[in-house]
Write a structure and sequence with these properties.
The structure holds two protein chains of two kinds.
Chain A (H helix, E strand, L loop, with lengths): L39 H26 L8 H6 L6 H13 L1 H4 L20 H4 L5 H10 L19 H14 L18
Chain B lengths: L1 H22 L2 H11 L17 E3 L4 E3 L27 H4 L2 H4 L2 H4 L30 H7 L10 H11 L2 H4 L18 H4 L2 H9 L1 H4 L12 H11 L18 H10 L7 E2 L2 E2 L9 H4 L2 H9 L1 H4 L12 H14 L19 H10 L43 H10 L17 H12 L24 H9 L29 H4 L2 H9 L19 H14 L13 H13 L28 H9 L1 H4 L12 H13 L11
Antiparallel strand pairs in B: 1-2, 3-4
The chains are: A mainly alpha, B mainly alpha.
Chain lengths: ~190, ~650
């Protein structure tokens, strides 16, 4: 894609015609010069073709120089979260809905219910790295009891969709990065009990 | 002769070129790579599967995507490189490719067999480029017509926001009903507000209510003056109730305000609910006399209001009105303008503005039709061709999604802003509305392939029960038979549905709770307001709910012998239920306090809840632990046997 000049619609004079077919049409095939036949007609046709393609090439170059720098998609920027990928952001929404009550909005172990728990929920920034990748999924799906610990964190495997667990794992990964994750736009209704 | 020779050569060259090109087609290369990964995905065959095609006449689609994406339905290829990777998640379980194809959800050119031809990336002026990851939920909405399609974050939010901001009042919107439009009648305005407040409000509604549902109409000062003159004309309205302010007690009014839990619906100083308007500056908006009459009977002024008619004594209503006037009487910034009466000469001009801007689409006023519908229909807006391409803003690609997003964010930012008000959506809200708008496609899919919300029971509750439900506006927060107010989040304020409440809770508890509500789930901010329901009314409501709002399947018992209860206690400890529930003096503040729950919960319901919490309350924090029925029964038996706490016991 990068080698091809990108032509922008709406910038005036350089928009490609709408295409409805299935295949992108390739450049027209030039008639190759046939060696051994030296007739004025063939030469003429060849040189006309050469001039025409040169002219077209020049036109394209000139046209695209006039195009403004690549324009942005305003709407897609609105969805974008600089700190989190789409999957991580989805995981964070799941986390806030189901987990934040105890684990806190950023997984620091400071949810409003954390102080009623013994043992208290850990700070993921410190604890998650110690948990092997396989155990992370196990603890979400089977609860802390699945790792032989206290049963205070319940199993979510039957409640959450598979994608949600994947997203949750992706967010946990992001959340336990040493740099604090910026809060994301809350796109989901708060935790419903 | 020469021409013939040249033509023949050209023909030969073309044929050779075509054959070479075909044999080196992209999809052949990918299928070869796929074979290298361990054989054609999904088939025992050693040979290449060849060009693949899914033909769906009812959806008018021919999708050849699986020619390259050969392994979409092969879970073992979860981590293979694209395009040989399996489809992520479990989407294909419910959206079989052979039934729905690929482009139904993803967009793009299904007939193409090249990466570029399939429009994986947006190509200028391409009729249907592939949906970007961000906007893909718009494609869900084409078939999923329900208000909150499952698993969508943006689409359901966009649809809820469109309903909340009354888009349907000015635009015809498929799937939205004009009956949902709910804005104040304007007849009684002269009795309620001052010219200064009205000028400030019309100039900038968000200056008074930061979360105002009304948009900013960008009115000129002259239009504001004219509209103020027109709206403050005296009109035939019910008179305000007489009141003697000399005995008003502001302190007591404050107690009424807090004791009634007004903040469940009304925000003050940035904290509280959003079902009703914020009251932070209400004393600067509404006159004290009007507040008194409103508190006594809001339905007399606004038949469609969500606010209940609290059973206050006249003294309580007077004290509360005095408290609101005094405590929240400070006008917000920009509302201190002249309070001079507007010029009567501008009344006719004001009427013109009122008509031109379609104010009566949302606000009822004597002498005006119910709906203006001054905006264009929104059906098919997701396929609108904007020609010439609209200049959205410098540096922003002139595509339909960008144009919609920019117009929704602030209509003044696009050319031809016309009459649409600026709703002041946050960026993410505007993006959600854009997704909802893009789901309104020109070409309808066959009805059999769509999903919709179940048709609502048309019958409003009748008789004595119905009158109480309307007086106390139970359906402003709760749902009953699918009816009930839905907030801007797309959900009702309360998660407690009344449809089978008689099978969930005992009649005694219902009666006690309705008369004197308290926080069952202690950490929940949205508590039921204290409506001062009279004892005989509470009895009537409880009796009706317990006899009519039941589900026979839930009317079962649980064994109550000591052995079962003891086994239930073991399960309670083993599952760590105490993390969220209080028993005795210990436990978490997430779910209900379980002390004395035998007087509150019915056994059959408790078992059903433990077995399938997500079925009864989607999104609940009660996890599905996959309990067996005997275990759930034992657990329920234990929970219902927990005695009430001595100190606070039955008094709550």
């Amino acid at each position: 894609m990068s080698q091809r000049p990108v032509v922008h619609g709406g910038s005036g004079g350089c928009s490609a015609p709408p295409r409805t077919g299935t295949q992108a049409a390739d450049p027209a095939v030039d008639v190759p010069p046939v060696p051994g036949i030296s007739l004025p007609l063939a030469q003429c046709a060849f040189s006309i073709g050469l001039v025409a393609s040169l002219a077209m090439g020049l036109l394209i170059v000139a046209g695209c120089r006039a195009t403004p720098p690549p324009a942005k998609d305003a709407v897609q920027e609105a969805f974008r979260d600089d700190a989190l990928s789409a999957q991580e952001a989805r995981g964070h929404r799941v986390f806030r809905q189901r987990c934040a009550t105890c684990h806190g909005p950023q997984g620091r172990g400071d949810g409003q219910n954390a102080y009623n728990l013994q043992p208290p929920p850990p700070d993921f920034l410190e604890s998650l790295a110690k948990l092997p990748a396989g155990d992370r999924r196990k603890v979400i799906e089977g609860g802390t009891a699945a790792l032989g610990r206290s049963p205070l964190c319940p199993p979510w495997g039957r409640t959450l969709a598979l994608d949600d667990v994947d997203a949750l794992l992706a967010w946990l990964e992001a959340a336990s990065r040493p740099v604090a994750v910026a809060p994301t736009v809350d796109a989901s209704p708060g935790a419903r009990r | 002769m020469l021409a013939f020779g040249l033509l023949s050569l050209a023909l030969v060259a073309t044929v050779v070129w075509a054959v070479v090109k075909e044999s080196r087609a992209e999809w052949r290369g990918w299928q070869a790579r796929d074979r290298a990964l361990g054989g054609p995905a999904g088939s025992e065959d050693e040979a290449s599967p060849g060009l693949q095609q899914i033909w769906l006449p009812d959806l008018d689609r021919v999708d050849r995507c699986t020619s390259c994406h050969v392994a979409v339905a092969t879970p073992e290829r979860r981590d293979a490189p694209l395009p040989l990777r399996a489809h992520p998640g479990r989407w294909l379980e419910t959206h079989r490719p052979d039934r729905y194809g690929c482009t139904s959800c993803h967009g793009g050119q299904g007939e193409a067999t090249t990466w570029r031809g399939a429009a994986h990336q947006a190509i200028p002026d391409w009729p249907e480029p592939m949906a970007s990851r961000e906007l893909m939920e718009a494609r869900c909405g084409t078939c999923h017509k329900e208000r909150r399609p499952k698993g969508t974050d943006w689409l359901d939010r966009g649809r809820a926001l469109m309903a909340d901001r009354n888009c349907v009042a000015c635009h015809e919107v498929p799937g939205h009903d004009v009956a949902e439009v709910r804005s104040p009648r304007l007849d009684g305005l002269p009795l309620k507000v001052s010219p200064a407040w009205l000028r400030g409000w019309l100039k900038k509604p968000k200056g008074y209510l930061p979360k105002s549902r009304m948009g900013d109409f960008r009115l000129s000062d002259r239009d504001i003056e004219a509209l103020t003159a027109f709206l403050l004309q005296p009109r035939a309205t019910p008179p305000l109730d007489p009141v003697d302010w000399s005995k008003a007690d502001v302190e007591k009014g404050g107690e009424v305000f807090r004791g009634s839990r007004c903040v469940t619906c009304h925000e003050v100083n940035g904290r509280g609910g959003t079902l009703g308007p914020a009251l932070t500056h209400v004393g600067a908006k509404a006159s004290r006399a009007w507040l008194y009459s409103w508190i006594r009977d809001p339905h007399r002024f606004q038949p469609k209001t969500l606010m209940p008619r609290f059973r206050f004594t006249d003294e309580q209503a007077r004290d509360l009105a005095a408290y609101l006037s005094e405590e929240y009487g400070e006008p917000p910034e920009g509302f201190e303008a002249s309070n001079a009466p507007p010029s009567a000469a501008l009344v006719d001009e004001g009427r013109g503005v009122f008509e031109k801007r379609g104010c009566y689409s949302c606000h009822e006023l004597e002498g005006f039709p119910a709906l203006a519908r001054i905006g264009p229909k929104l059906a098919a807006i997701g396929d609108r061709v904007l020609e010439p391409a609209p200049l959205v803003a410098r540096g922003i690609r002139p595509t339909l999604p960008n144009w919609l997003f920019t117009k929704v964010s602030g209509p003044e930012r696009v050319l031809n802003a016309a009459r649409m008000p600026t709703f002041g959506f946050a960026e993410d809200e505007a993006a959600a509305v854009t997704v909802a708008l893009l789901s309104l496609r020109a070409k309808e899919v066959p009805a059999a392939l769509t999903t919709r919300d179940p048709v609502r029971a048309a019958d409003a509750p009748q008789g004595e029960f119905g009158a109480l439900v309307r007086r106390y506006r139970c359906l402003s927060c709760h749902t009953l038979g699918g009816a009930g107010h839905v907030t801007a989040t797309g959900l009702p304020l309360s998660t407690v549905r009344l449809d089978r409440i008689g099978s969930q809770l005992t009649r005694e508890h219902l009666e006690r709770y309705i008369a004197k509500p308290y926080g069952v789930r202690v950490a929940l901010p949205e508590r039921m307001p204290h409506l001062n329901v009279a004892p005989e009314e509470a009895r009537t409501l409880a009796a009706y709910l317990s006899t009519v709002m039941v589900d026979d399947a839930l009317e079962t018992g649980v064994p109550t012998d000591a052995a079962t209860v003891a086994r239930g206690k073991g399960l309670f400890d083993r599952h760590g239920c105490v993390a969220c529930h209080i028993v005795g003096d210990t436990g978490g503040y997430v779910g209900p306090d379980l002390n004395g729950s035998g007087a509150r919960l019915k056994p059959g319901w408790t078992v059903a809840w433990l077995l399938e919490p997500e079925r009864w309350k989607p999104g609940t924090l009660e996890p599905d632990r996959g309990l067996t029925r005997p275990d759930a029964e034992a657990l329920a038996a234990y929970v219902l046997s927990v005695p009430a706490r001595k100190a606070r016991g039955s008094g709550r």
